Amino acid sequence: MNPARANLWKLRLYWFGHSLVFAYVIERVFGLSRGLSVQDMVTVEIFYALAALVLEVPTGALADRWSRKKTLLLSSFCIFFEFFLLIFAFNLWGFLASALAAALGGALASGTANALLYDSLLETGEQSDFERQLGRIGLWESLAGLIGALGGAWVAVRWGLTSPYWLSLLGVVLAFGTALSLHEPAKQGEPVMAENLWAHMGEALTFLRGQPVLQKIVLLATCLAAVFQYVDEYLQIYMQGVGVPVAYFGLFYACYMGGEAGFRSLAYRFKEIKQPRWLFAGLLGGFALFLLWAAALRSLWGLLPLFLALACVWLSQPLTTGYLHHRTPSSHRATVESFAHLLTSLLAVAVGLAFGQITTRWDIFSGYRFLTVVLLGFLIYWALAARNLPAYAAIEAND
């Protein structure tokens, strides 16, 4: 098999191992059991976001200039310590140390894996298939998440809340082993000309500043991701608030992972829509309205609109990522996506400060209502600013 084509299934296996986490299904309950408050957990989230903010762009530039394969190997090494440190964390400082390892591991992988995927497709002349390949990777991620959710809840009930963290180390080892076998595709187009890492980051920023359409897509992805982070991370608190027993968390996450896999794998079909401005406006508005509905119900029925809110984000993720990569040259691919993650971290800090205060003072339902206000505010901006957004057929012609 062509080494570049072999990267397609290897990246699926890499993300399967990366996502085979048995601990996520009980991480908030685990935090509470180790003496953390909701405000403490938000503090950890904000620290994580700040660390990612500092590390995001330099690690993306490192991947573009050095090696995307080696960058993914370093990512797996850091994520191993993320879980290992939590096993022995009994106070806020231990959780902060784990968050630092997670931020470095996440920063090293974000943008890097997608850049490697896109350049692998460029090498085989199949770059228009990028969104569909992202959807297939999402299927493997969701399968791993499903196994982790069902297994993690069961293991936690049977052997205690620490056991899922030990089990999660296995997935990291699988991801590391798979990354070792990846083929490093040649970068297409103009070579990297910057003298050093910082100059390369400056060149990527200059490119992004000259792309007003791309800027709007980056802002859209940033808003969706920053709000989604707090909806997703505090699902367990919401489930407790509506009376879902911990033993059923795994069942909910099984539905979650199945839905994520399905919607992400179908996203590429929406590339045919000639007015992506209205598609993204609908997904953004749907996320806001379904989230508001879930916050208003305060019952088990709230899980249905909450699921639909998440579905709007799952559909948008491959589309915004594809839009970005189709318009970005190979030499800056990981760096530009890292700038998008940097903006997400900045917004996540600002949103998290208010979300943590509101949730601690009142409840998770009030926190979700606040997130709705953030989304509706950006929807107004999008309606005014995102006119004449090119269709996918136009941007793919640039490849």
CATH superfamily descriptor: MFS general substrate transporter like domains
CATH topology: Growth Hormone, Chain: A
What is the share of helical residues?
A: over 70%
Mean pLDDT: 82
End-to-end span in angstroms?
24 Å
The level 1 CATH classification is Mainly Alpha
Strand content: under 5%
Shape: globular
Number of domains: 1
Which features characterize this protein?
single chain; 399 residues; mainly alpha; Growth Hormone, Chain: A; 17 helices; 78% helix; globular
Tell me what the structure shows.
Helix 1 runs antiparallel to helix 6 (about 110-125) and helix 1 runs parallel beside helix 7. The chain has 17 helices and no strands. The protein has helices at about 5-20, 25-35, 40-65, 70-85, 90-110, 110-125, 130-160, 165-180, 195-210, 210-235, 235-240, 250-265, 275-295, 305-325, 335-360, 365-385, 390-395. It is globular. The model has no long low-confidence stretch (mean pLDDT about 80). Helices cover about 80% and strands about 0% of the residues. It has one domain (about 5-185, about 195-395): Growth Hormone, Chain: A (Up-down Bundle), CATH 1.20.1250.20. With about 400 residues, it is mainly α.
